[in-house]
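Input structure tokens:
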């Protein structure tokens, strides 16, 4: 089983973020912590004995590193009362570089964490300030060094498709981060989310994001740098040294079962997709009163499962079985957007740039889904 635990709190909000996270008091953190453990206990009882063995656990947010390393270790100790950790269980925690010193990484390691996902985003102080991040480039470098010195696998998140002044720095940041020797890189294009401070600045004409062509050229250049430095692309935004892929995230894309706990968390179990309410207060209240935390619940039929297999599989370099795709892909192949190999099809880096359009064109007709 894969277990995702959502920690929906941040110290401050970044200018571009629309994730399910908020700034809240320590008192609310404590109430939420208690509710989380109650949900974990309840769900562990319902899902059946065989699903209590953890292939991976991912503590994400929000900013779980608001808890110190020792608190994360104690929290995991509680979780492991209900879900069993084995020698091969991948245990990841997301860390904001502003939060932890070397001792925190070591304490988290001692508590069972073996992978840190670091929200570096950039190694330019100007870009970090523009993004509203609360750490400096130096802090990010120091945190990466401490995470690596702890002996855990380390992934760094970086942003590209930044406004003009940040564009040079994305390639500089990538080179500098790679010099530190992380095992894994996640590279995301900055996107405009409605109602964020960044979206308002763009609306007012104060900043402009790059056009599609510029962003595409930059992405392909960064992908090429990663390849030259020995990082293999295994998903649109994810690259790793061989053998250091995120097993937790790979499970999402290959439609393995996972349980998500916490406000707004999603699950896929026994071909049922369900999600919790995203409001933290409502979530705590529902847990306290013994009511349902669910906001959605859906049983997937065969056509929906196959559509998901196409949508998720084409994000990865493993691709999907060609027989699943009912449309001709000759045109896409001729354009260099997909490759066929051993009965599977996958997107090329150029194809990944327009993945949404390609995937939408390869899905079965909506009408035939309705009849299935
Ligand atoms: S730290 Fe992460 S979750 Fe929190 S506001 Fe920034 S981007 Fe969003």
């Amino acid at each position: 089983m894969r277990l995702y635990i959502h920690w929906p709190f941040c110290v401050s909000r970044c200018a571009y973020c629309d994730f399910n996270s908020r700034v809240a008091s320590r008192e609310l953190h404590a109430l939420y912590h208690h509710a989380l453990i109650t949900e974990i206990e309840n769900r562990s009882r319902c899902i059946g004995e065989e699903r209590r063995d953890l292939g991976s656990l991912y503590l994400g947010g929000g900013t779980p590193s608001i808890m110190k390393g020792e608190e994360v270790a104690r929290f995991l100790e509680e979780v492991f009362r209900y879900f069993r950790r084995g020698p091969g269980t991948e245990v990841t925690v997301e860390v904001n570089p502003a939060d932890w010193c070397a001792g925190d990484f070591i304490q988290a390691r001692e508590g069972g964490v073996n992978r840190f996902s670091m929200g570096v985003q950039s190694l330019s102080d100007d870009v970090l300030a523009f993004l509203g991040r609360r750490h400096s480039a130096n802090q990010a470098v120091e945190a990466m060094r401490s995470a690596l010195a702890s002996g855990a696998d380390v992934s760094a998140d970086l942003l590209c498709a930044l406004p003009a002044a940040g564009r040079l720095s994305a390639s500089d940041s990538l080179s500098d981060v790679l010099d530190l020797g992380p095992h894994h890189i996640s590279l995301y294009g900055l996107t405009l989310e409605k109602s964020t401070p960044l979206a308002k600045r763009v609306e007012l004409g104060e900043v402009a994001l790059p056009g599609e062509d510029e962003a595409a050229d930059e992405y392909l250049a960064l992908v090429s740098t990663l390849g030259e430095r020995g990082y293999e692309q295994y998903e649109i935004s994810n690259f790793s040294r061989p053998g250091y892929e995120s097993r937790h995230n790979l499970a999402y894309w290959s439609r393995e079962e996972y349980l998500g706990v916490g406000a707004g968390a999603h699950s896929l179990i026994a071909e049922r997709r369900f999600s919790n309410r995203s409001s933290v207060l409502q979530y705590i209240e529902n847990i306290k009163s013994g009511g349902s935390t669910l906001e959605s619940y859906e049983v997937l039929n065969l056509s929906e499962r196959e559509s998901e297999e196409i949508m998720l599989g084409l994000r990865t370099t493993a691709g999907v079985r060609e027989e699943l795709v009912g449309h001709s892909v000759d045109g896409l192949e001729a354009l260099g957007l997909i490759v066929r190999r051993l009965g599977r099809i996958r997107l090329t880096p150029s194809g990944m740039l327009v993945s949404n359009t390609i995937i939408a064109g390869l899905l079965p007709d909506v009408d035939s889904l309705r009849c299935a």
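The chain is about 40% helix and 25% strand. Residues 366-372 have pLDDT under 50 and may be disordered.
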